[in-house]
Amino acid sequence: MKILVCDKTEKEAIERMRGAGLQVDVRDDITPEDLPGVLPAYDGMVVRSRTKVRQPLIDVCPNLKVIVRGGVGLDTIDADYARSKGITVMNTPMASSASVAELAIGYMFALARSTYQATSSMKAEKWEKKSFEGDEIGGKTLGLVGIGNIGKEVARRANGLGMTVVAYDPYVKQADGVKLVTLDELLASSDYISLHLPKTKESAGMIGKDQFEKMKKGVRIVNCARGGIIDEGALYDALVSGKVAGAALDVYAEEPPTDWKLLKLPNVIGSPHVGAATHEAQGRVGAEVADKLIDFAKKMQPV
Ligand SMILES: NC(=O)c1ccc[n+]([C@@H]2O[C@H](COP(=O)([O-])OP(=O)(O)OC[C@H]3O[C@@H](n4cnc5c(N)ncnc54)[C@H](O)[C@@H]3O)[C@@H](O)[C@H]2O)c1
User: Fold this and answer.
1) Residue 72, Cα to own-chain centre: how many angstroms?
2) Which atom of ligand 1 lies nearest, measured to the CA of 275?
3) Ligand 1 center to residue 216 CA distance, Å?
4) What sign does the CA torsion over 215, 217, 222, 226 have?
5) pLDDT digits (tens, 9 = 90+) for 191-234
6) What is the pLDDT of residue 303?
7) Does the global pTM surpass 0.90?
8) What atom of ligand 1 comes closest to residue 93's alpha carbon?
9) Residue 93: what are its φ and ψ, rounded to 5°?
10) How far is CA 30 from the centre of its chain?
């Protein structure tokens, strides 16, 4: 089987696939313009977030049999269309859960103790001891919107830190250490709200002006899920009015943002969509991509 690796993938994973007899070519800087001319010669492709696999690309690749995405969501792939053409589409749903959960927890501490703002002040050679009285996160209520793989990892860690954890997820019936509540109950009771759900037609913009109004004054918000689930304009207003004390964002409606005014607010901290960017997660993603392709190839050519 011939595989085209279109995005950055661990070397060990590529070597393991080659060792298992797959012909693997790495073109991890291939452009969307070049891809339709190159991909038709391959049976399979490996993508991360950068390479999008949309219907027109699928249409010019009648021999494509498998797409493996190293990552959680399949929003960068027209997966239903690909499957309708007989292509197997796979991802690595749990490989980065712990990394994203740790970032979300780290952000809660950073918001509670203003560690970014204190560091900036120290770098400016200031000793503003009185400006940085913070809060403990133990004893506070954390509201998780979405309690799947990452939400559960966050809940486990938050329980260990002495937080009360509530969650809103209409598709989940039970989660250990978590009280399932309605979205309105979550908004009214949470000191911290962290999002861990996919962006869908239903969830796009679901945290907007009305939802901010229902939150506690001084709530802190973490979004390591997807940009656009929170209405960024409404979040900006809530941060300026003080309704929201602070926000930590790893994801944005537009990436990279073209309008940086939200990020420039003093009570906002952020990162460039790096929730899964740890050595451990990348290693697990690579290993799972290799396992899945080797397994797929074996099923295609039984010995
Ligand atoms: N920042 C990053 O780098 C990064 C990395 C990995 C994943 N993510 C994001 O994190 C999200 C969660 O990942 P996961 O592995 O936990 O996924 P998952 O599929 O295991 O869990 C998602 C949960 O969200 C729930 N959900 C769906 N629609 C909902 C809605 N409208 N309201 C409330 N809950 C809803 C689902 O029922 C499910 O339990 C992903 O969809 C992805 O967007 C971000």
Assistant:
1) 7
2) 3
3) 24
4) positive
5) 999 999 999 999 999 999 999 999 999 999 999 999 999 999 99
6) 52
7) yes
8) 15
9) -65, -30
10) 23
Residue 12 known to be catalytic: no
Mutate to test the pocket of ligand 1, among 77, 103, 150 (most ligand atoms within 8 A of CB): 150
Within 13 Å of residue 164, how many CA atoms lie on the same side as its CB?
Answer: 11
DSSP per-residue string spanning 77-110: B-HHHHHHTT-EEEE-TTTTHHHHHHHHHHHHHH
Q: Find out whether 271 and 255 touch, Cβ atoms under 8 Å.
A: no
Long-range interactions of 216-219: CB distance < 8 A, separation 24+: 216/188, 216/189, 216/190, 216/191, 217/242, 217/243, 218/191, 218/242, 218/243, 218/244, 218/245, 219/190, 219/191, 219/192, 219/193, 219/243, 219/244, 219/245
HSE-CB for 235 with a 13 A CA cutoff: 27
CA 196 to ligand 1 center in whole angstroms: 5
CB atoms within 10 A of CB 47: 23
Which of 16, 220, 226, 284 is flagged as catalytic? 226
Residue 273 annotated as catalytic:
yes
As a whole number, mean pLDDT of residues 48-53 equals: 94
**Distance of CA 234 from the midpoint of ligand 1 (Å):** 22
Residue 176, phi-psi category: left (phi > 0), alpha (psi -120 to 50), beta (remainder): beta
Whole-number Å distance between alpha carbons of 72 and 95 = 8
Q: For residues 235 and 247, is the Cβ–Cβ distance under 8 A? A: yes
Q: The tokens of 127 are what?
A: 């000793």
* Bond preceding residue 256 cis, omega within 30 of 0: yes
- Beta strand residue intervals within 155-302, DSSP E: 164-168, 179-180, 192-195, 219-223, 244-249, 268-270
